[in-house]
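dude i think i finally got it to work??
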Amino acid sequence: MGNGADLLFPHLGIVIEKMVDHFTVFGFEVKFYGLIIGMAFLIGMFICEWDAKRRGQNADDYWDCFILMAILGVIGARLYYVLFSWSYYSQNPGEILNIRGGGLAIYGAVIGGAIGVFIVAHKKKRNGFEMLDSIMPALLFGQVMGRWGNFFNCEAFGEYTDSLLAMRIKKSLVYPDSITALMKENLIVENGIEYIQVHPTFLYESLWNLVSIFIVLWYGKRVQKFKGEIVCLYMVTYGIGRSIIEGLRTDSLYVGNTGIRVSQLLSMFLVVIGAGVIIYNRFVRKSRAEVAATETTKATAAGEASAEENSEE
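look at this
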């Protein structure tokens, strides 16, 4: 199967003869990864506008956010990647600003973008968490599309597998550092061409985020009780999926030499924080409010009874 193809899903019968990661316009190389991110951001803007209107908010406030979000998002994504790859960049400082060479991290982009939202929210006297609630579906859509940029780059895949969704890639198309000993042990040779067969983790995460979009939209319409709850739900849903899928990948960033994956650790932290805030606001805070209301009612009733007794005297 494949007969020299660049990439295939052998158990699904899907064959891609030639993998192309860019095209050229007037001699300028345009990467599909960058094009996909740009399209995702543009479409995400309209998704955000739609959600803001659905919530009865001023959609123009969000358009004022987008440019600042994009700038701070790219800066955050790069800083995050460089910080956790410092052993390389400390020896190659000239590469720190070479974004075209790769190296952007989604968590850094989210942090940078969120800072941009709070800056705009402060200037417009808006609640930053309320604005972020409307941005979450758009963010998830961007993550759904963004993972397909990884597909075109033949990156962000997992360990060896022979499962139904196994993806087979020409060994020569991937970064040597991403090839593990287990992949080498299960190397597949067809017509003299070496292939690795791996988990398509980009696909897993794209599908997980697609499901998450429907979850947050449904939750926001029927269940949400407080501002920022959709942000917390995003932290829980994305965190769960990312922490599981990250464990399959072979190109993770690590905390120093500890063997602890940065994204996996951060994902689990987000799940705990997101779930904790939801539980606190829905149960603990609500319970305290109910107790306070009951005490106020009792005090009011006692006051009224006392007043009646005094009037009778």
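The chain has a mean pLDDT of 89.
im so relieved honestly
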